[in-house]
Amino acid sequence: MGAMTGIGQLGFFEWIAGFHGSFNMSFVGVLIAHYYVISKDRYVQANGLAGVVSWLLVGVLCFFEILPVPFISATIVSFILYLILFNYVEKPLFGQKEVERYVPYRLARVAAEETK
Length: 116
Fold this sequence. Notes:
mainly alpha; two-stranded antiparallel sheet; 3% strand; single chain
């Protein structure tokens, strides 16, 4: 009966759903921006400044309902903010480092045996 009327512990579940909708989706926007735009076909290692700032800022804005529709706006705004912060703040401050692709030993051994 309490679940149908909204009396009881539903406020806690609403808080958890709002938290996940705000902060998780802003993290998804950062991941998509880095993987598909920044890295493309190479492996770019970031220091994390742009990612943490855009994730936290957009997550807080969505959690306190400053940005509407958190699961959509968090992804879009964090995507754009990450690209701006990475290209104009993090890259000039720390530079851009490309790393080699890591191949586990077992997969490398199997690939070497197949080429023989």
